[in-house]
Amino acid sequence: MGFRKIDLPLARFGRHAKRSYGFCVKFASVAILGLCFVFVWYMFSPSASSVTYQRSTFGEYAEPVSARGQLRKSKSSVVPIKNEPDLNLGKGEKKVVNGSLGVDRVDGTKDHKKEEKGVKIVKEEKQADDNGSEVSESDSENAKENEVDEESEEGENIVDGDSAGAEVDSDQADESDELNAKRRIKRKFKGPLFDPKAEYLWKLCSTRSKHNYIPCIDIEVASKRIQSYRHHERSCPKNPLMCLVPLPHEGYQTPISWPKSREKIWYSNVAHPKLAQFVKTQNWVVESGEYLTFPQNQSELTGGIAHYLESIEETVPDIEWGKNIRTILDIGCKDSSFGSFLFDKNVFTLTLGLKDDLVDLAQVSLERGFPAIVSPFGTRRLPFPSGTFDTIHCGECQIHWQSNGGKLLIEMNRILRPAGYLILSSKHDSIEDDEAMSKLTASIGWNILAHKTDDVSDIGVRIYQKPESNEIYALRRKKVPPMCKENENPDAAWYVPIHSCLHPIPSAIEERGTEWPEEWPKRLHTFPDWMNNRDKLVSDTEHWKATVEKSYLTGMGINWSTIRNVMDMHAIYGSFAAALLEQKVWVMNVVPVYAADTLPIIFERGLVGIYHDWCESFGTYPRSYDLLHADHLFSRVKNRCKKAVTIVVEMDRILRPGGWAIIRDKEPILKSLEEIFKSLHWEIRLTFVQNQEGILCVQKTMWRP
Q1: Residue 550 has pLDDT above 90, yes or no
Q2: How far is CA 594 from the centre of its chain?
Q3: Residue 218 burial class via C-beta count within 10 angstroms: exposed 0-12, middle 13-18, buried 19 and up
Q4: Widest CA span of the chain, in angstroms?
Q5: Which residues contact 151 (CB under 8 A, 6 or more apart)?
């Protein structure tokens, strides 16, 4: 019995292809296969909207009138003064002092029991009560904001980079996998902002850095291969931080108030083995029992810091500290006496603490009450917009500017204001370094105004000035580095690599950077032509001035003599910082990367700020700030973070024990936040609600699990 031969269609097709008309069959088969491939690709590939790309601008949105617009005429919209506890609240209004924001009670008892250590707190609210992440504002202006946010959802919480299609330099092809991972669109997590049934059982973080842990900078786990304690670039943990940073083992004491903190601080608050070794070799900081003391006018420089700064001003008369020069970036934080002396001249000096294995004095600077951030500075742009700092100073910071094609100096060129100054000082200048630096600065069109060695301090000082027009770029013989492409955004700075190109200097009057700002303090209230929303700026400034004077300074029980380091976690125009100008405080204005890019306006007013994504940890040491201000921060998050509660954990990390937090937001969000703060054993000092909007004032305690 023989087997029957099966005549498959594919075999028959092959035999037909061998005949005289086989060419047509082959051509038809190729076409059919191609169409099939296109069909399969279309059906199973991601949609065009899901392609990972980098946006060049921040999505704009309008701010709510209730928080940033014109002043409310209702007296009840202002937080009541402490001396007037019996306030006639209208229907729908609630106010509790040192109590709970929860359900109204006739007997006036608190709506919570004091939690014991290690006890879980279970949220019993309905899920509908915590829908603040998608709640629309009560006024038309905020409704417009929500529309803008919805239109730009796909691109607003992604890495701030160059515009789509912009080519990256060839030498950036070897970027780390970690950077490539950051260049993806972050999905929005659906559901309520806070899980109403969540249980919070806190524990201490167990990391190598212990009580000084900075999550996105410090390496968490020790390894034989990894000897360093810090990442070379910002790299956050895969899982959001849900533990509490412990207090120093030597004991933590309430920081010494300003201005006494300029002269001495508690040693135990900043204790570090490498710091102890460093102090023994310095004369500007002295260990004195329980304190670190700072002798007046003492610095690493022979002759004192006063002589050093006066000689700079004499060499370049246009450098008028506190008038023409208001905002300075001090790189390295080697000697905090630089910012200390300039503070008396109304100069805002922001110190950039370079995180490496050498001793980092940024924590000492913050403990003394001076502005500082901690950030790596290697291959990525710093989190600042372009053309903002009046002056950049680098004293003995040991940065090799000429290495890697001069990219670090190109980054200084980006953030320095046109006609701004770069001041470098060093005791050990080599001929080779001088020649390389001269060649590099000439290639980017910088003019050297001074290069001298001071007779008293024996310090070599070089002062450079950035060009104020594009004419110098056209006169260069070699166009190296080249000019950046038109579609490259100079203000993109969040996880963006440094590009080896020069951005054109603004030339049109409607562009930012064509004119030097007014002298301080006039520039705080002077709005240039490129600011199109002047009326809104004026209204916002007046609103926050009235709110701070009538509510924050007198109605919350805050002892402002103990407040020095302040952060506005959701700054818009810097008006909150401007309202506190008469107080002895400084304010770090944080503009979220998913919000409208208003940071250039803040710098133009003579204030200082930074870009940040609150789904990640901030670049500072634990226990850095005395007061945190969050105006509608949580309702703007819109579930961008995997766990919104990690923002509260970060607030606990960067706020000092005894520090305060003022939160303005939707009532459902404040209810959830209040329960979370209770689980952290924070004191609820004041709550106030009107028309579904509210304010929550809390104070951190010394409690640790």
Answers
A1: yes
A2: 12
A3: buried
A4: 113
A5: 59
H or E segment and range at residue 121: strand 121-122
For 253, the token pair is: 């004491």
Contacts of 78 (CB under 8 A, 6+ apart): 72, 546, 547, 550, 551, 555
Confidence band of 104 (pLDDT split at 50, 70, 90): very low
Confidence of residue 554 (pLDDT cuts 50, 70, 90): very high
> What pLDDT band is residue 508 in, cutting at 50, 70 and 90?
confident
Whether the Cβ atoms of residue 69 and residue 539 lie closer than 8 Å to each other: yes
Instruction: Please give the full DSSP string across 585-615, using - where no structure is assigned.
Output: -EEEEEEETTS---HHHHHHTT--EEEE-TT
Computed from CA positions of residues 435, 438, 440, 443, in that sequence, does the dihedral angle turn out positive or negative? negative
pLDDT greater than 90 at residue 622: yes
pLDDT number for residue 120: 44
Separation of alpha carbons 93 and 95, rounded Å: 7
Q: What is d(CA 173, CA 569) in angstroms, rounded to the nearest whole number?
A: 35
Round to whole Å and give the CA distance between 205 and 271: 18
| 659 and 558 Cβ atoms separated by less than 8 Å | no
pLDDT at 170 over 80: no
User: Which pair of tokens denotes residue 407?
Assistant: 């990219």
Report the alpha-carbon distance of residue 341 to residue 436 in Å, rounded: 32
Pairing of β 199-200 and β 94-97: unpaired
Could you tell me which residues are beta bridge partners of residue 665?
Answer: 694
User: Which pair of structure tokens corresponds to residue 336?
Assistant: 């905090």
Residue 38 reports pLDDT greater than 60: yes
Which helix (H) or strand (E) segment holds residue 287: the answer is strand 286-288
pLDDT of residue 160: 37
Preceding peptide of 259 cis, ω within 30° = yes
Residues 6+ apart with CB under 8 A from 413: 444, 446, 466, 502
pLDDT over 70 at 615, yes or no? yes
Cβ-based neighbours of 635, under 8 Å, separated by 6 or more: 132, 133, 135, 193, 665, 666, 669
Residue pair 507/473 in contact by the 8 Å Cβ criterion = no
- What does each C-alpha distance from 284 to 294, 298, 460 come to in angstroms? 6, 5, 20
Structure tokens at 209: 């850095």
Six token digits for residue 42: 């279309």
Which stretch of DSSP H or E encloses residue 453?
Answer: strand 447-453
d(CA 453, CA 456): 9
**Tokens (6 digits) for 39:** 């069909």
Spell out the residues 6+ positions from residue 185 whose beta carbon is closer than 8 angstroms to its own.
50, 52, 53, 154, 155, 157, 158
Length of the chain: 705
pLDDT band at 231 (very low <50, low <70, confident <90, very high): low
Which stretch of DSSP H or E encloses residue 349? strand 348-354
Q: How far is CA 223 from the centre of its chain?
A: 30
DSSP, res 245: P
Of 530, 533, 559, give the one whose Cα is nearest residue 659.
559
Among 700, 705, 589, 612, CA closest to 652: 700
How far is Cα 292 from Cα 367, in angstroms, rounded to an integer? 11
- Determine the 3-state secondary structure of 660 from DSSP: strand
Q: 315-367 pLDDT, tens per residue?
A: 999 999 999 999 999 998 777 788 889 999 999 999 998 765 456 689 999 99
Q: Is the peptide bond before 521 cis (omega within 30 degrees of 0)?
A: yes
Q: How far apart are CA 12 and CA 182, in angstroms?
A: 53
% of the chain with per-residue pLDDT over 90: 50
